[in-house]
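Sample 1 of the test manifest.
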Amino acid sequence: MTYATRLTQATADRGRLCVGIDPMPSVLDAWGLSRDVAGLEACARGIVEALGDRVAVFKPQSAFFEAYGSAGVAVLERLLRDIRAAGALSLLDVKRGDIGSSMAGYAAAHLGEGAPLWADAITVSPYLGVGALRPAIDAAVAGGQGLYVLARTSNPEGATVQLARAEGDRSVAQAVADAVAELNPAADFAVGLVTGGTHESLGVDLSGFNASLLVPGIGAQGGTVESLPAIFGAATRHVLPTASREVIGHGAGELVERFERLVLATAAL
Amino acid sequence: MTYATRLTQATADRGRLCVGIDPMPSVLDAWGLSRDVAGLEACARGIVEALGDRVAVFKPQSAFFEAYGSAGVAVLERLLRDIRAAGALSLLDVKRGDIGSSMAGYAAAHLGEGAPLWADAITVSPYLGVGALRPAIDAAVAGGQGLYVLARTSNPEGATVQLARAEGDRSVAQAVADAVAELNPAADFAVGLVTGGTHESLGVDLSGFNASLLVPGIGAQGGTVESLPAIFGAATRHVLPTASREVIGHGAGELVERFERLVLATAAL
């Protein structure tokens, strides 16, 4: 089954909200856990234990696991297996981007059955060109997995690169979106985009885009579910709104209530 | 001691050639090693055992370690310690790039004494803006470590993003180089650039650039040491030419001879 199909089913069953697993030091503090690999594991796997049967998609942020070296990456391996066992989808936020054999190395880490850090989808970065992502795209399609290519991020510093003018007098973000849209029919709509949800104007026309749009930053980072239709227009139906600290940043006791409140808001999308 | 100072000393002592540690499947084959984590460890650490007292800078490519999951990352941890113990510098090619707390997570993995994957320098990707790299820049300067920001890569697909027109009618690669140059006086020249060594024309003016330039692709990928002055002009003195398969791709028996031949060519730079 393709990633696009699994995503449609999961969000139809469980609601269209992705929960970011960002066990950063301040989140460990809020949970009353130690800032070490044991605290990391208790927090990250605790989120899936509490919400695994309610959430359609979990998005672990690799950086917070890598911060603890190989021991943290081992926790991430266990977490990804937990998510799969709970019947939820995993979308691993790693933002990898390289060329040739190195890109193939990253693909081997995450894509294809048996990959040690297998995830339903991963995020990738196009600074070396969407074309350079080819080894990952091929591996994702073959494995029924998904990719999300960074297009327009929510941070202000992103404009320098993302709003520069690419060929055809369009923004770099638009050129990335167009290249991805062109790939998709042959790629089972496996390749989505990452686009911030806090811009008044995106600088990218996504009205014809037909794969998934990962939109982080709902809640604590300033985005709201209600503002998404004004930003994404006709493409709103492809948006996967993602909240992290808003759900997980207040300790284990508030997880279910905070998730339920936010996922309810997405029902109107 | 700053990274820039350590780099100057190491290259003065040992010659100005960086050796890429890219233990990809085809390299393991050439070494007669198995395509598994044991083969990975024998190859990667074998390179440092054979060349650790001759090479100024080793550049391990993280993707080939991550391909084996947490077990591969544990090999990378041991390799980075080997390099340090051998008195060489480590430049870890990870091309990380994220924002805020996530970027801080990557910094915690690699920067600051005690970081589990400590390296003398790491590569980073500016798709989210050079400004978004701030947590890594601050951590690198505080720890006496270095960063190399991707500017202009050698692959043809890179042009879409890197040669797009940024503010001030310059290429994105130039805008990245200018932003890095501006940072550097206050940052102890800790922040260098990654620029391909196979372009006839770079599309970036680096004549006034005053920190290190990592130039991969010497040897097997088509770049030559002899062509560097024509590409880099006055900035050639900052170039750190990097060869990987040319040195390590022919088995353990040819390591020393192949390194010695190439490092000799860099003496004229």
